[in-house]
Amino acid sequence: MSAGKPGLIRLLGLLGRDLSVVVGRRHLLGHVDIEATPGLLTAVVGPNGAGKSTLLKVLSGDLAPQSGVVFLNGQMLSAWSAEERALQRAVLPQTPELAFAFRAWDVVELGRHPHRCRSTRERDHTAVSKAMCLTETFDFARQDCSTLSGGELHRTHFARALAQIWEPRVGGLARVLLLDEPTASLDLFHQHAILGRAAQMARAGAAVLTVLHDLNLAAAYADRLVVLAAGSVDAAGPPAEVLTRERIERIWRVSAKIATNEDGTVRVQVSRSEAGRALLRDLP
Q: How far is CA 243 from CA 180, 259, 263, in A?
């Protein structure tokens, strides 16, 4: 894997090796290996407190691990400048924040800021317009974001991420899309719409990694699942191999049935009564 030069490897996309994060006495991540490969959508799943959001912060460069290293397109993440990172990867945090009163168009246009010296006004306008159309946010493009619903605002930020990496591969480098629970505030239609767009970006050559709680959404759209439990990788691979009854019962503490859909994807069925009994078992 080595390219013969310190800090370089022969790999496009995003790669994390031996990542560990400790806060006080809590081990949030312990020796995690993970990669986001161009052309694939990778979903990170796990219960609350498993370390999913912490892992995404490390992979994006927002949090430095106590040990381990992250590579972006074959070079250590820390070796890229902030501007160089922004040209290659976009991040949708779990709770996007706005410091000022922006219109929805202005928020999406922020995604083109890293390209300001390399792009044209026409290309930027096209990227913003198409990203907003794909996320059904164009109709309120001129609306103040403070007047948007939570789901509308989240879709606006997703459009910003899409606009930032609109061209999936430039100069031989893969674009990386990192999403932290992108479906959390969305209705049923838009949950599928956003993951469908993310999958399209992957098929166009981007490396897409998303954190999800809904195992059925993960199974439907992900090419590869990574299961985190207590800060460590419990399993990684195709959804049909990873989502087993034993693993779901052990990690999520519910009994489940695994069924196969007509298209070959799997779905997880958890009965309401079984979930309730699982909670009662944990009571003192």
A: 20, 10, 16
The residue range of the domain holding 72 is: 14-242
Flag whether 9 is in a domain: no
Domains in the chain, number: 2
pLDDT in tens, 184-209: 989 999 999 999 999 999 999 999 99
CA distances from 60 to 57, 69, 194 (A): 5, 12, 20
Helices (H), 175-257: 188-203, 215-221, 239-242, 245-252
Is this model's pTM higher than 0.85 or not? Answer: yes
Indicate if 40 and 139 belong to the same structural domain.
yes
pLDDT of residue 10 exceeding 70: no
Q: What is the mean pLDDT of residues 160-181?
A: 89
Contacts of residue 87, Cβ cutoff 8 Å, sequence gap at least 6: 114, 115, 118, 170
